[in-house]
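Dataset card, provenance and construction

Sequences and ligand SMILES were collected as paired inputs. For each pair, a complete structure of the chain with the small molecule in place was predicted and serialized as structure tokens. The example below shows a pair involving flavin-adenine dinucleotide. Curators did not alter the output after generation; any descriptive sentences attached to a record were derived from the structure itself.
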Amino acid sequence: MERKLVFAPLARDGHTAIRVAGIADLESDTTIDAGRVEVLRRASAELLGIDAAGDVEPWCGLRPMTPDSRPIIGWSPLDGLFINSGHGMLGWTLACGSARLTADLIGCKASVTATRAFALRRAA
Ligand SMILES: Cc1cc2nc3c(=O)[nH]c(=O)nc-3n(C[C@H](O)[C@H](O)[C@H](O)COP(=O)(O)OP(=O)(O)OC[C@H]3O[C@@H](n4cnc5c(N)ncnc54)[C@H](O)[C@@H]3O)c2cc1C
């Protein structure tokens, strides 16, 4: 927790792998920085005793965020384009609720409160 890292076991190709996640930058470049991978590898060795010298699969991705950290779920100004994005680091966690709201909004069953809370133009 102190180092702001997350270790999670993952089943992969019949083997157990460990996902070591951490480090975020405010930018849109997804080039993997070898120095950052080394920080995570070293932390895995120090905290869990894992010697993952060559058996590492580096990965990174974008985490689109909104200024108020709430996702945008609703119709865009473009005809027929619906937005369900901006979940930051919680896209998997919020996936079911976002899918529910998406279905309700498209089916015109969502409450006014929910519709406004996640609208693209929240203040309008
Ligand atoms: C390092 C990292 C760790 C994370 N950890 C967690 C976590 O622990 N818990 C959690 O809840 N969330 C986590 N997230 C967030 C989560 O991964 C995302 O919020 C979630 O994946 C968003 O889902 P999505 O389907 O909207 O977009 P994505 O998963 O980005 O899927 C979009 C898909 O569209 C494809 N695509 C893009 N453009 C085109 C195109 N023009 N034509 C066709 N296909 C296209 C892409 O290739 C991709 O497959 C993490 C994100 C990152 C980067």
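Derived descriptions for this record:
The beta strands are 6-12, 15-21, 72-75, 82-85.
Helices lie at 34-48, 95-106, 112-117.
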